[in-house]
Write a structure and sequence with these properties.
heterotrimer; A mainly alpha (302); B alpha/beta (324); C alpha/beta (337); B: 324 residues; alpha/beta; eight-stranded mixed sheet; C: 337 residues; 11 helices
């Protein structure tokens, strides 16, 4: 009989080496890379962050950024001052680069605070009893009824303008949207069968929340965070613009806009370039956020 | 009666809904002997899955008793239920939904071991590998994620997770109904082998009578929250008493051209389980229903060989259908 | 058989292309259907059954789907080369489709009657009133009383919805109905009622039916002919008598052995070993060889051809081509159910 036994596929497949533990980040990155606009956003953002990080090497803070120089005031863009100078003769490019050192860390910190606090509130609200949920969400509704910027203005006005109060104000204003998003995704995940499965193998509530619910509700939170950083930068600029944020002479994009607005007729560059800096940062964050939304969507997985 | 690992007595579970009270499980009683399999059969919405979850303590019963090794699950506190889960496990229907998509196969199978500290951290990996071996899952999947596996393999993961605590009793909630035919048979064989090896007792919940016939020692048929017939497997197929069980049997399309489908022995569609009227709930769809079927509460009648049926016309019907 | 061929699929190949990989969904598939005949297309998840049906109506999502070769002749016209207007004329009118999930294939904001009337109004030159009248008749025909015309899909149960979908599919008296797992989402007793309805309608309307299912039992009750699909290919086809009484392909035999039946009590099922092959990386030679109990070295290298074994019974297996030393295997594969 020539029925030679050839190893079945199963046995053969044992030879295939065990898959390396590959984090899901790799596959998310693969999908993000396909989105050209998101990559563009990421490149711009990286550029801005890098220039902010090395700002001191590029421009000296004391001699270039805050040092007033009456002779050079209101110079249009030139080889010496690429983006011109402001009404006190300071180089605008230098101030923009150093301004990023203010806006970006504050924006990231506020959103980090808002994500953690809002996420926790949302998770409790979504996972807890109906009563707890009702109480928390009605409080959030009250906050949501007030425009974020107005809330920030009120908080800063009450506490007085300072860096710490600015942080607090913007963080608080951003908590309710995060609470809502986390709650919504927790509500949909807590009814999934794998949560019931976790309960059946004796997992307690803490474990279910941290091991099962939170990892699965991260995607919308990350997207929201990216988009909110953009909003936060805008809020810092807006507060500084009306004098409640960063105080002069520290460079801040909103404050620069505010300071230059009376010269806009004959020195357009004072307002234009800080404005473009704000716009580019926000645009890059929004593009990245949109790309992340697609890349993190599990439905698009294969 | 000490060889009954599980006894369910007059179990009732009602859900409050906007339109009234949903009678998910109504006065159900049965028992399962150690090492045996009870097949719980019924159509969607008949309450069979609810019973499974009540037994696991995932839902709180409205009233009734569930005695597991003589202890009433319904009266247990959180701590006791936590301890109980070591002996009482469940395999879910949908291997796509019941595995956390963000955890690797190794983490999923090892999670119960971690929670109950059954093994030391250092031994966790080897124990997980042993379990994967037991359920016939190639070890190279230990770091894969559920979405990288097909349905049959995922269900093996679910089985490995249920086995990890070395339970005495497993509730199988439609474990094969979402799998392909050829894979279904593999998983059924696996469950059977595991039962023989570890002396497991199964509550096998399904809508498929042909699967329970292959699998069960005893079969209970449910309709709209109530048990309508219960008997030893062979006995039930030899002498089908309740008209609903007959209808279920006649409705299965046999993969055999010589055996054309019989006329389906029922009319209409499933009625609502919300605030049902007293009497036989199947009466509205039953071809044999008469005035006596509605209004009065039903009793389980003994037809010998521990064969029970709730149909009030069973005696007459049995004579006519058998003579046919 | 001198009935005309209503539908003929020749050498159909469909692929799904993503950036990283190509899924070979349907591979050189040949299939034909006579008018008035019902054919059951049986296979497991990923065998390419649904893709085949979608290709007939040109509904394969592109991208990622791509029909790379083949012809689909419907009444002599190649649908793959047809213009969009012509396809629109065919869809719903000459060929209609029933989808698996009745819950999602009806539009929740229109009444069921109006949804059926719309199909009729679109394809038949008639007034709105006539279309509505005919829609009401259709509802009656599938066993739904006329006075439920104005009700909305959410007021119907699953089985009733599938009846509405069937009414919609037969509204324009199509030549061909493609039914993709029409009863899989339903309970057994409801499934039996729907199958009974389909059998009645088949006799009444004399339409052809391409029934896609994974359930051999459903095929036995409804179909005249059957085609077994595996990994994008048809591995065995013939009349239901031929295939169900004398299955020849090891895969078909394996399928029958995997099903627990009510007639006999067996101690152990005999499943097919292994899993469905990865459609991005199909095995060489015979695609079933990694799971086949009779596999030989030849099977890994040589692609089997369609071999006629008896009557209209065609099998794609090297054993039946005489490429393997058969005596012992023949005994096994020639077993009669």
């Amino acid at each position: 009989m020539n029925t030679t036994i050839i190893p079945s596929k199963n046995q053969r497949s044992e030879i295939i080496p065990e898959k390396k533990k590959k984090s899901q980040l790799v596959s998310i990155w693969k999908r993000l890379r396909k989105n050209k606009l998101a990559v563009a956003g990421l490149v711009i953002l990286t550029f801005i962050i890098l220039s902010a990080a090395f700002a001191n090497a590029l421009f000296d803070y004391n001699t270039v950024v805050i040092q007033q120089n009456a002779a050079d005031r209101l110079q249009p863009p030139s080889a010496k001052h690429w983006l011109g100078t402001d009404e006190l003769g300071r180089d605008i490019l230098a101030r923009i680069v150093h301004g990023a050192r203010v806006s970006i860390p504050i924006a990231f910190t506020t959103i980090l605070i808002a994500t953690i606090v809002g996420g926790l509130i949302g998770a409790i609200s979504g996972y807890g009893s109906k009563r707890v949920d009702n109480i928390i969400m009605r409080i959030m509704d009250i906050f949501l009824a007030i425009p974020g910027i107005l809330l920030s203005i009120a908080i800063v006005a009450a506490l007085g303008p300072s860096l710490r109060n600015l942080l607090i104000a913007i963080s608080i204003a951003n908590i309710p949207p995060f609470a809502r998003i986390v709650r919504a995704s927790v509500l949909s995940i807590r009814n999934e069968e794998f949560i019931e499965a976790a309960r059946a193998i004796g997992a307690n509530d803490l474990r279910i929340i941290f091991k099962h619910i939170i990892p699965n509700s991260m995607a919308p939170v990350i997207v929201q965070a990216t988009l909110c950083i953009a909003g936060s930068i805008l809020e810092i600029a807006a507060l500084s613009f009306i004098g409640l944020g960063i105080q002069p002479p520290a460079p801040e994009w909103g404050a620069m806009l505010s300071g230059g607005r009376q010269y806009i007729r004959y020195a357009w560059w004072i307002c234009a370039f800080p404005g473009i800096a704000i716009m580019l940062t926000i645009l890059s964050l929004n593009l990245l956020g949109d790309g992340l939304r697609d890349a993190l969507d599990p439905k698009l997985k294969n | 009666m000490s060889d009954n690992i599980l006894e369910v007595k007059n179990l009732i579970k009602h859900f409050k809904s906007k339109n009234g009270t949903l009678h998910a499980v109504d006065d159900v009683s049965f028992s399962i002997k150690r090492g045996q399999t009870l097949g719980l059969v019924g159509e969607s919405g008949c309450g069979k899955s609810t019973i499974g979850r009540l037994i696991l303590g995932l839902h709180q019963a409205t009233s009734g008793e569930i005695l597991f090794n003589g202890q009433d699950i319904c009266k247990m506190n959180k701590k006791q239920i936590h301890d109980l889960r070591k002996d009482l496990q469940i395999i879910f229907q949908d291997p796509f939904a019941s595995l956390n998509p963000r955890m690797s196969i190794g983490e999923i199978i090892g999670e119960p071991l971690l929670i109950y500290k059954k093994v030391k951290r250092a031994e966790l990996d080897s124990e997980v590998r042993r379990l994967m071996d037991v359920v016939g899952l190639s070890k190279r999947f230990i770091n894969s994620y559920p979405h990288e596996l097909d349905g049959g393999r995922r269900q093996r993961v679910g089985i490995a997770r249920a086995l990890s605590l070395n339970p005495q009793f497993i509730v199988c909630d439609e474990p094969v109904s979402s799998l392909d035919v050829s894979i279904q048979a593999q998983v059924l064989n696996l469950l059977k082998d595991l039962q023989a090896e570890y002396g497991l007792t199964y509550l096998f919940i399904t809508h498929d009578l042909s699967v329970v016939k292959y699998f069960s020692d005893k079969i209970a048929v449910m309709y709209l929250g109530q048990l309508v017939e219960i008997a030893e497997s062979d006995e039930l197929f030899k002498k089908t008493v309740h008209p609903y069980t007959q209808a279920l049997l006649s409705a299965i399309p046999a993969p055999n051209i010589r055996q054309k489908m019989q006329r389906v022995k029922l009319i209409g569609e499933l009625t609502s389980p919300i605030d049902p009227e007293p009497g036989c709930r199947f009466a509205k769809r039953c071809l044999y229903s008469q005035a006596q079927c509605v209004g009065q509460d039903l009793e389980f009648k003994d037809f010998g060989n521990s064969h029970f049926c709730s149909c009030c016309r069973a005696d007459e019907l049995l004579n006519t259908t058998i003579s046919q | 058989m001198n009935r005309s061929k209503l539908l003929e699929i020749k050498d159909l190949t469909v692929e799904y292309r993503t950036d990283d990989e190509i899924v070979y969904a349907v591979n050189s598939l040949n299939l034909s259907l006579h008018s008035g005949e019902s054919l059951g297309l049986v296979g497991e998840t990923g065998a390419g059954k649904s893709t085949t049906a979608l290709s007939i109506l040109q509904l394969v999502a592109d991208p990622p789907g791509k029909i790379t070769s083949g012809e689909i002749l419907f009444e002599g016209d190649d649908l793959l080369k047809a213009k969009r207007d012509f396809l629109r004329h065919i869809r719903g009118n000459k060929i209609s489709m029933i989808f698996q999930d009745p819950m999602t294939s009806l539009n929740p904001v229109y009444s069921v009657g109006d949804q059926i009337a719309e199909v009729i109004y679109l394809h038949e030159k008639c007034s709105k009133a006539e279309a509505q009248q005919k829609a009401a008749d259709m509802l009656e025909m599938v066993g739904i009383p006329k006075d439920r015309y104005d009700e909305f899909p959410h007021q119907f149960s699953g089985g009733m919805k599938q009846r509405v979908v069937i009414a919609m599919s037969i509204a324009c008296s199509p030549k061909l109905i493609l039914a993709d797992e029409p009863t899989t989402a339903l309970d057994v007793t409801i499934q039996a009622q729907v199958l009974e309805l389909m059998n009645d309608l088949k006799v009444k309307l004399n339409t052809s039916l391409l029934l896609i299912t994974h359930d051999l039992g459903v095929v036995a009750q409804v179909c005249d002919r059957v085609a077994i699909m595996y990994a994008g290919e048809i591995v065995e086809t013939g009349t239901v008598e031929e295939v169900f009484e004398h299955p020849k392909h090891p895969y078909t035999i394996g399928l029958f052995r995997s099903i627990p039946t009510l007639d006999e009590k067996v101690d152990r099922l005999k499943p097919i070993t292994g899993q469905m092959p990865d459609p991005t990386n199909l095995p060489s030679g015979c695609k079933f060889h990694p799971r086949c109990p009779h596999m030989n070295e030849v099977c890994t290298k040589m692609k089997p051809a369609m071999t006629n074994v008896a009557g209209t019974h065609i099998v794609k297996c090297l054993i039946h081509e005489g490429k393997l030393d058969p005596t012992e295997i023949m005994e096994e594969v020639n077993y009669v159910r």
